[in-house]
Amino acid sequence: LIDMTGGTTKVTMYLDALCDVNKAYTEYDEFPDTASFSEESLKLLRLLVKMGGLSQVNYWPENDDSYIRGRWFSEGKGRALIGYTEIMSVMGENAENFIFRTFSYNKEENIPLFFGDLAGINSKISEEKKEAAYDLLEILTCAETMESAILPGKSGETPQYLLPARMSVYEELGKTLPVYEKLGEIAANPENRLFKMGADVREYLAAVKKVLPGLIFE
């Protein structure tokens, strides 16, 4: 089960696959030429389409439930699910029963990339607001805030299953959510890298979104 409906999703998957093909991590400060594409990377994405089935990877529900594949998987449908950890929020207690691993697009090399939620301060902020901005940043990134944001808000609700950047948070969450012991092992691996894209990302996305579907869904 895999969601390949989004335009940005397909572009980031292509860039992710390209890292595996090139056997090197890149922060994409400079983007690949939009006039040509890596045929090997495209073949890997086409293979994913065949594995998931064209109708399934392109399916989007009328109620806009972006986590519908997580619901299917928790019901026993599908042999594997490729997606973000947040999708486990719809799985209930079943989220504790799965095996996790980083995903490689090919057999030869795996450059595991993660998407991250970052907190930053605009460089153009005025001097009178800068101190307050730093205070807010400290609150947002402290362990206590992260733990509160991930844990269920009320009894009966599910965790958000985010991947925090502080290892101490995994240790604390693991006391009540055993799944975070598994996730912590992945997060602690120094070979796992943050997915980054350069300043021209909007222009690159706009250009590639137009042509990539026709190259993948043959």
Q: Could you tell me how far the N terminus lies from the C terminus, measured between alpha carbons in angstroms?
A: 19 Å
Q: Work out the radius of gyration.
A: 19 Å
**Biggest sheet: strand arrangement:** 1-2
pLDDT average, as an integer? 93
Helix/strand/pairing category = mainly alpha
Counted by DSSP, the helix tally is 9
* Share in β-strands: under 5%
The low-pLDDT segments are none
Order of helices and strands: HHHHEHHHHEH
Largest sheet: 2 strands, parallel
Shape estimate = globular
Helix content: 40-55%
- Tally of DSSP β-strands: 2
Q: Any overview of this molecule?
A:
The chain has 218 residues and is mainly α. Helices cover 44% and strands 2% of the residues. It has nine helices and two strands; from the N terminus they run ααααβααααβα. It has helices at 7-22, 39-52, 54-57, 68-74, 127-141, 143-150, 167-173, 179-187, 201-216, and strands at 113-114, 193-194. Strands 1-2 form a two-stranded parallel sheet. α6 (143-150) packs across α7. It is globular. The two termini are 19 Å apart. The mean pLDDT is 93.
